[in-house]
Amino acid sequence: MKNILNNYKVLALALVVSLSSCDSILEPQPRLDISSEFAITDKRGAEAALLGAYSELQSNNYYGLEYPAQAYLSADEADWSGSFNFYQQFDLNAIPAENSTIKSVWSQIYRVINVSNNLIDKVPAIQDRNLTDVQRQKILGEAYFLRALAYFDLGRAWGGVPLVLQPTVDKNSGKGIKRASREQTYAQVLADLEQAELLLPALTVRSRASKEAVWALKARLYLYQQNWEKAEAFASLVLNSGKSRLVQPYSAFYTGKLTEESILELVYDNADRNSHANYWLTSSRGGRYEWKPSAGITQDLRNPAVGGSRSALIGSQVNNGSETVYGQKYTKVATGEDGAFILRIAEQYLIRAEARLKRNNLAGGLADLNEVRKRAELQPFVTADLNAALLAVEQERKVELAFEGHRWFDLIRTGRAAAVLGIADANKFLFPIPNSEILADPDLGPEDQNPGY
Amino acid sequence: MQKPRTNRFVQLLLSLGLVLVTGIAAIAQGTLTKGVVKDAKTGEPLIGARVQVKGTDKGTVTGIDGSFNLPVEQGQTLVISSLGYTLKEVKVAGESVNVALQEDTKALSEVVVVGYGTQSQKAVSSAVTSVNPSELKGIPAPSPDQLLQGKASGVQIAAASGTPGGGIFVRIRGNTSINASNEPLYVVDGVFINNQSLSGLSLGGQTTNPLADLNPADIESIEILKDANATAIYGARGANGVVLISTKRGKTNAGTKINFQTYAGIAKAPKIFETVNAQQEAELINETFINDGGNPTLVPFRPKSEGGLGLPEEQTTYSRIPDVFQTALTQSYDLSASGGGESNRFFLGGGYFKQEGIVKPAAFERFSGRFNYDHLVNNRLTIGTSTTVSYSRRNQSRNDNSAQGVINSALYVPTYLPVYNQDGSYARHSIFDNHLALIDNLNIKGESSRLITNLYGEYELVDGLTFKSSWSLDYNNYADKVYNNTQISVGLPAGNASRTDTRLVSLLNEQLLTYNKRFGNDHFLNVLLGNTLQQTKYNTLSLTGRNFPSDDFQEIASSSLQTGSTNSSQNGLVSFFSRAGYTYKDRYSVDGSVRADASSRFGAANRWGIFPSLGTSWIISEEAFAQDLPFDLIKLRANIGLTGNQNGINDFASLGLWRAGRNYDGLPGISHQQLANPDLKWETTRQWNIGLDLALLQNRLKFEANYYNKYTKDLLLEVPVAAKTGFSSVFENLGEISNKGVELNIASTNIERDDFTWTTSLNVARNVNRIEKLPIPINQHSRDWVRMEEGGSVYAFWVYKQLYVDPQTGDAVYDDVDKNGVITVADRQIVANAAPDFFGGLNNQVNYKRFDFGALFYFEYGNDILNLNRFFMEHGGTRNGSITFLPGQLDRWQQPGDVTDIPRLTRFGNNYNLPSSLYIEDGSFLRLRSVTVGYTVPTELLNRYKVANLRLYVSGTNLWTLTNYSGLDPEVNVAGDNQNVRGIDHAVVPQPRTFQAGLNVTF
User: Fold this and answer.
1) How close is the nearest chain A Cα to the Cα of B462, in Å?
2) Are the Cβ atoms of B668 and A51 closer than 8 angstroms?
3) What does the pLDDT read at residue B25?
4) Which parts of chain B sit beneath pLDDT 50?
């Protein structure tokens, strides 16, 4: 009997040992993550979240590849030469609403917006004496800028979109927000830029938003809105700030990093890699050659009278007697360090040139145009015809801003897409709302899809 | 196209099934012998005892007074048997025979292994399939799961590819989940082992199989628990079935036995890919050019003098495909010692296995050891261990859905493009690598180290009451080591390397209290009570290096750009469980179990899940009224229960999280990661099962049937949310799935003589899966080829249905579902499914004198395959110059009046730019999975070498396959890494055909 009692003691002991460890077994803490409520509660958290917003902006689903790619594939800059037919669909201007790139870009842009919304919502209330007012304003200013950029990119590609301005806390957040019009979307962009303009200091670091970046984006926004006067005024503010200049030679701004050319350039490194080079380069250069420069742009860039020193953008290799051309604006496949050139000074010259021409200032317009041509080692363009000058700006934008994702939106905003790209169906000038979004968002019905999809 | 084949298929199955019955017919002949069979103890006559003439089919059953009449020749032997009695043999001398049978106490204790113990065979009310691993010899598979194919009804097993050590699909009674796991729980000697691939590499869709760490030669038995009453004792992990693996142990008082087994073999691809030749390709490209409005004088393949690539007939065809296939070698060696003294028993074994892949350069190699030991400290206390260690190495390569794949780079590249450049260097084309460069330079290694060990002490407290405590560890360490030199495109421009070490450690502690007691003759009670604590920790450490000084340096330390990263996570389960069973008169049984599990993955409010089950069985054949029926056994079983599932979701799925590592410009950043759902809880599966077991003709024909009905609710579903929130999905308990099915098992002893036996078994199962509730459809795979939607089932292909090709225009005509005149996404529909309508196996085993012969057929019927090779290579011109064509493209429409399925070549429009039903094929197949012929050497010849037993054998696998599928092999799945995708063929390594020879010797 005593034996049995002893045995039960052993049993009881084993049970006690096992039960006492239950709590530690059942309540492990995540290691890579923190709970939402602890994010953005102090200065370091706010700074980290702001960096996180830039990280989302530089994602390969946004500026690291796909946003510019969907624009230059849709225009006449690049031809698809790979195996992913979801990219081919842009090249053919036949994008189904299930296209996976459309979905990933749309979702990624809203990731930038949600992080910005969190910052805009939480930073003003942070109680941390290490956070000075100047720092607080700068963080908020950058958040407003990033949200403006995100909505601008949505607006020009898809038209009006749902304007979510509050941070997401649970799955019901954002309920009831339907598609706004493009005008409302651009108005929101402008409102955020006004805020950012008040809060942001002058440019010191080209990889971060600054007052000059706000002006530059405002100039572009006004250009898209055909508000020529304001476009000219804000481009002038940027050009006159002296913070940026056209670098020599042309290739210097993309072979270098954060050169004086840039007003806002996203930087990439070995850990945060830009994917562009992989898609542009041939397999013998370590790429997958998913697309290549179109025959038209190759011809333009190689034409000494049109491309000038921008012929450097076209690479060439000869195998077994046949030539393969490839684009080489993005070539740092080993390090992944190619930049994303969101705002640079050459565009500001061309914005002002176009705005001045639209305001019948032929001499002023040509002067700005020829600044850009001069850097490309070209002769000044001379004409007395305003329309010819405007066409020259269009052509200059094509070669100067090649492979950066401008031309598609330029041709659409100027009404020239049908004529230049030969797209008869004007519905194709807006991308489709992702089909998955129409399914997942109760505020979007089939009737909210862009027409023609 | 499908119909005639269907009939042939069914006919063949039926004719094979008939084999079962033919051996059984018995014809009575000879002089009449009379006799009486009595109970030896009581002297009462035995009713329904079977009397059989040994070595023949002749037999009868005793009547109400225990008597029988049977025509028997003098000198023949009668075999007399009755359920619950020891079988007895009597030689016939004279005209009457009186036999007394002893009650068989052993028969009453005949047991089956179930969760946490054993149950009396008679009392089991569950659907449990036992597989005897000795039947599995002859298939050179590295992992035990693959050997079960065709052996267990209702268990669908298919290799995703022919890569050695690669992922295996195992599904017991259908898919119960979409985002949580569908894999069964594997329990080896009481240890819950990890079954998730720990390799962090993405090699095109295939995974590694962690069960390949186990040496099949160590396995004594495998039981598959299928229904809720069997699995509810595993509660939160039971919903997808449980596979119990017991390894070999020694025998007490048995001396020491040394066993050596080995085999070696070769493997080849039964069929390799074929493409068009260069001239045909050039003609197709020219035709596309002209069809698309090009100037016929400017076609790409025109004379070089005119600036073209040369005329089609001037093109050289460069052959690549044969280069990537090889005749692969397999070798296996196992040496073991087992035995025991009075107070101990042991099994000590070591094994080596190496298998090459049929597509270069792939190989799997394993070193394994096992030590099982039990020691009887005194007549109440036993202590022991089950321990296995193994180290496996994989040489891997990319294939499948990877442009850098070996098969891809040989198969897809245009045939008119040369393999080498003029300067002799490897030529690369389009997005593809050079296949020879890949074969020579791929350097992707996987190393798995595994320790599975269990230590236990078992003490009999009082008679029938036993306490057992065991402590277990499953330690997995998996290292991925990749070095890409500059000869292959992923290594450009200066080489890169990566290494990821993943460690998964699972600790388990278990207490068990069992009570088994027979009260009097009629009552038998068994009770079990236990608890377990389990903690699983997961850690990874990964390093990458880029920019190497030359191709001679491979260590990350030699590179100039290095990055590192770590990850870790953990989860825990606390469980209490109990089972009780009661049997009355060995005839009526009820049993039930309940388990309560608490998981760290859920919030405190939903942490506990309770999983009960209840079952009952009735052995009708024991009843007096059934004694006249010609059955040795009639048993009815029924049970119902609940099981849970929480595997496969991340460890912190219920929390709202922000993640670090979202860095910018070298500075640390954070951003939102996951939406909170504090209400998250278990998936719950309710399953009921009814079964019927029959045995007749003196147990020579056995029949088992099960009908099951599973209904899973509260699916742990990654529900898409509007992207405008910044999130893509949230885990919610939404959605319901049902699985209903039947399983049939027939086992027959067709011939049973001293020197000649022939047994046949057939199993067939059908599972019907239905997604009962799903808030929104979920698409899978690139281009959304697969869709799960309410009312549909898993593995459904979602495509534009091509109705026909217009003979006038040559354009594909698609089903315009919404009749709006244009083909849009609204016209996509589900047209086919990769899950089979039914599947099963047919096994024949013949022993004649010293020869043994085995043949196993496996079949799946009604499964569809999406042939993505055709999608990419019957591209109609859309991929001209970057991807060549399959010969099927030659059947394209060319001129008005042509009637064909293959549309006119064009880069534009819908002919070739849509995910079309054109590429979906019937994937039904019947395969001779394995054939084995063995010979056991007579002991007289062996005695002087002190050899107790020696068997030599040769075997072959996949020698013959009947299928209508146009690809290389119908057992194929490009997405081994996605449980919601099956049956997609895309540059997958085919199943090899193998031949091997082996020997098994015991000293």
Assistant:
1) 8
2) yes
3) 36
4) 1-6, 9-10, 12-29, 105-109
- Residue in B closest to A35 by C-alpha: B657
B662–A contact, CB cutoff 8 A: yes
Q: Which of residues 913-952 of B touch A (CB under 8 A)?
A: 913
**Weakest mean pLDDT among A122-131, A175-184, B251-260, B674-683:** B251-260
CA triplet A439, A440, A441: central angle to 5 degrees?
Answer: 100
- For helices A133-158 and A182-199, angle between their N-to-C axes, nearest 10 degrees: 160
- Give the count of beta carbons closer than 10 Å to the beta carbon of residue B445: 14
pLDDT at position B201 is: 87
Token readout for B152 is 């267990």
All domains in chain B, ordered by first residue: 31-106 (2.60.40.1120), 126-269+325-795+834-871+921-1002 (2.40.170.20)
The alpha carbon of residue B964 is apart from the nearest alpha carbon of chain A, in Å, by 28
Q: Beta-carbon neighbour count of residue B566 at 10 Å?
A: 12
Assess B462–A contact: CB distance below 8 Å, yes or no.
yes
List the CATH number of the domain containing A154.
1.25.40.390
| Nearest-CB residue to A26 (from B574, B664, B784) | B574
The sheet carrying B88-91 orders its strands as B59-61, B50-53, B77-81, B88-91
Domain hosting A111: range is 40-200+423-453
In a domain, A64, yes or no: yes
pLDDT tens figures, A221-245: 999 999 999 999 999 999 999 999 9
Judge: A171–B675 Cβ closer than 8 Å, yes or no.
Answer: yes
Handedness of CA B375, B380, B381, B386 (dihedral sign): positive
Same domain? For A301 and A157 the reply is: no
- Which residue, among A250, A260, A251, A252, has the nearest Cα to A375 in the 3D structure? A250
Q: Which of A156-160, A304-308, B92-96, B388-392 has the lowest mean pLDDT?
A: B92-96
% of chain B exceeding 70 in pLDDT:
95
Beta-strand runs (E) in B194-283: 219-225, 242-247, 255-268
Q: Is A16 on the interface with B (CB under 8 A)?
A: no
Together in a domain, A47 and A193: yes
Question: Can you tell me whether residue A380 is helix, strand or coil?
Answer: coil
Spell out where B463-587 has E strands. Answer: 465-484, 496-519, 523-546, 561-584
CA dist A179 and A191 (Å) reads 18
Tell me if A334 and B568 make a contact (CB, 8 A cut-off). no
- A336 to chain B nearest CA, in Å? 11
The yes-or-no verdict on residue A87 having pLDDT over 70 is yes
Q: Which of residues 575-614 of B touch A (CB under 8 A)?
A: 598-600, 607
Query: Does residue A304 sit in the same domain as residue A449?
Result: no
In a domain? residue A23: no
* CB-nearest partner of A115 from B574, B667, B671: B671
Q: Do A184 and A86 share a structural domain?
A: yes
Q: Considering A290, A312, A338, which residue would you say is the last residue of a domain?
A: A338
Do residues A186 and A310 share a domain? Answer: no
Which of B724, B822, B884 to mutate to test binding with chain A, by most A CBs within 10 Å of its CB?
B724
Query: What is the value of ipTM here, to two decimals?
Result: 0.91
Q: What is the pLDDT of residue B872?
A: 94
CB pairs under 8 A between A and B: 284
CB A451, CB A427: distance < 8 Å: yes
Beta-carbon contacts of B305 under 8 Å, excluding residues fewer than 6 positions away, are: none
Mean pLDDT of A302-316: 96
Among A289, A321, A338, the domain boundary falls at: A338
Q: For B220-244, what is each residue's pLDDT tens digit?
A: 889 999 998 889 889 888 899 999 9
Q: How many structural domains are present in chain A? A: 2
Higher pLDDT, A126 or B430: A126
- Please indicate, yes or no, if residue A270 is contained in any of the structural domains: no
Residue A121 within a domain: yes
